[in-house]
Specification:
The structure is a single chain. With 417 residues, this protein is an alpha/beta fold. The chain is built from 14 helices and 24 strands. The longest helix is centred in the middle third of the chain and has 14 residues, at 232-245. The model has no long low-confidence stretch (mean pLDDT 98). The strands form six sheets. Strands 17, 18, 19, 20 and 21 form a five-stranded mixed sheet that branches. The protein has helices at residues 22-31, 48-59, 85-88, 96-105, 124-132, 163-173, 189-200, 232-245, 260-269, 303-313, 332-339, 371-383, 394-397, 403-408, and strands at 4-7, 12-17, 38-42, 63-67, 70-74, 107-111, 136-140, 143-147, 155-157, 179-183, 204-206, 212-216, 224-227, 246-252, 273-275, 279-282, 288-289, 292-294, 316-323, 343-346, 352-357, 365-367, 387-391, 413-416. The structure holds ligand EPZ. Residues 22-23, 26, 92-93, 116, 119-126, 160, 162-165, 186, 233, 303-304, 326-327, 371-372, 399 line the site of ligand EPZ.
Length: 417
């Protein structure tokens, strides 16, 4: 199995360009089948999640023209058939075909989605939303058949501000009859990017980015060109890296606003950064003090940053804490960091961890447990003494476009072996 090998301790300088957002493009591609003409999406990252979605579209007989950074999708000859378990399980975002196919054909036949094992990750809120629009759901052994005679707008209150459920209900409701209101909706920037895409095709969505989204159904969605927003999680990953080992290291092509909570915490800890219109520059690392973070829905501190922040906290003076409120099993990477010398304590209920610092990390063999856990080990390997090898790297390649190339370009000694 391929592994990542890192020789740590090399200062990094130059510019890291950020790619399109994984958590937006993985919704945009399924959403494109709602278009009755051709949808063109640009700033598409080269990650394996996009490959897996492309395979589902090919399976459904959609026409796809994918070039570097762009994909054109025409679904006029699409065949609405079962999405096999094998295809469904490749990634979490396959669940967006539920909302899109239900919205387009009032029928979908697929299996429970895959994705990182960072918690139970049920889809009950998605299904509840589909039922509120008039769908009937049969499920057997994780095989779902969802169908409706017609879809009718309705008021839907989400018990939790779920990203996936908010987007999936939006996809199912854009062509429903009448008005749908999603209350207690999630407000992540990726949701705004998907709503803008649908509105560019002629949908009528208001309030995306707030906790109340209103969708008035339309009959036809026409062709459009749409750009994926920059990936705030990729940007935050490299900003944390720059804070630890950057020397005039710039993170470029970003929307700083989307990183507000992370910037606030890094600044509180002592990071000195220059924030530009679409970039952030870190001149040199400083001595950092310990901090406490609690993960929350947007615009709170993103759960996708907490694992990478754990690596950062090993370099802060004192005891830092992480309270994880979104997922119930997202501390697995900490035990890998311990192998590198980190001093960590996880509370019995697996909801809170304490990280002591400043600690010297030493390279060794570690295992990537999930996407962001894997990223936390790449950062650890880059600041550690000696050589680190990381296995299970397919997790990392699912969400980080050209990670080896981008890091090598700023002076990292990193390769896939
Ligand atoms: C999205 O996952 C992202 N994935 C995750 O990023 C991200 O961590 C998460 O949102 C939160 O921001 C994609 O966009 C593909 P949720 P999703 O629905 O949609 C519970 C990464 O590293 N819940 O907001 O799965 C759920 O179990 C990934 O890029 C239900 O109980 O997140 C979780 O505890 C990891 N029932 C919480 O809500 C439901 O029907 C948040 O889940 C849906 C969710």
């Amino acid at each position: 199995m391929p592994r990542i090998r890192i020789e740590g301790g090399h200062k990094l300088s130059g510019t890291i360009p950020i790619s399109g957002a994984k958590n937006s493009v993985v919704a945009l591609i399924p959403a494109a089948i709602l278009c009755d003409e051709t949808a063109t999406i640009s700033n598409v990252p080269d990650i394996t999640d996009v490959d897996d979605l492309e395979n589902i579209l090919i399976h459904l007989n959609a026409k796809i023209n994918r070039t570097t950074g762009k994909v054109e999708i025409n679904s006029s000859d699409i065949i609405n058939k079962e999405i096999t378990s094998e295809l469904s399980k490749k990634l979490r975002a396959s669940y967006y075909f539920m909302g899109a196919l239900l919205g387009k054909f009032k029928k979908v036949d697929m299996y429970f989605p895959g994705g990182c094992s960072i918690g139970e990750r049920p889809i009950n809120l998605h299904l509840k939303g589909f039922e509120a629009l008039g769908a009937r759901i049969t499920e057997e052994d994780n095989h779902f058949i969802i169908e409706a005679d017609s879809l009718k707008g309705n008021n839907i209150y989400l018990d939790f501000r779920s990203v996936g459920a908010t987007i999936n209900i939006m996809l199912a409701a854009v062509k429903a009859t009448g008005k749908t209101v999603i209350d207690n909706a999630a407000a992540e920037p990726e949701i705004v990017n998907v709503a803008t895409f649908l509105n560019n095709m002629g949908a009528k969505i208001k309030g995306a980015g707030t906790s109340t989204i209103t969708i008035t159904g339309v009959k036809h969605l026409h062709s459009c060109f749409h750009e994926v927003i920059p990936d705030r999680i990729e940007a935050g990953t490299y900003l944390i890296l720059a804070s630890l080992i950057g020397e005039n290291l710039k993170i470029d092509n970003i929307i700083p606003n989307h990183l507000e909570a992370l910037i606030a915490k890094l600044t509180e800890s002592g990071v000195d950064m220059e924030i530009g219109i679409d970039n952030i520059l870190v001149k040199e690392p400083k001595n950092y003090k310990s901090i406490n973070i609690k993960t929350l829905v947007y615009p709170g501190f993103a759960t996708d940053f907490q694992q990478i922040m754990a690596t950062y906290m090993t370099q802060c003076k004192g005891s830092s804490t992480i309270e994880e409120t979104i997922f119930e099993n997202r501390f697995q990477n900490l035990y890998e960091l311990e192998k590198m010398g980190a001093i960590i304590k996880v509370r019995k209920d697996n909801k809170k961890a304490t990280i002591k610092g400043k600690t010297k990390l030493v390279g060794t063999e570690v295992v990537s447990t999930d996407l962001r856990g894997g990223a936390s080990l790449v950062i650890a390997g880059l600041i550690a003494e000696g050589v680190t090898t990381i296995s299970n790297i397919s997790y990392i390649l699912r969400g980080y476009d050209k990670i080896i190339e981008k890091l090598t370009n700023v002076g990292a000694k990193i390769e896939i072996i």
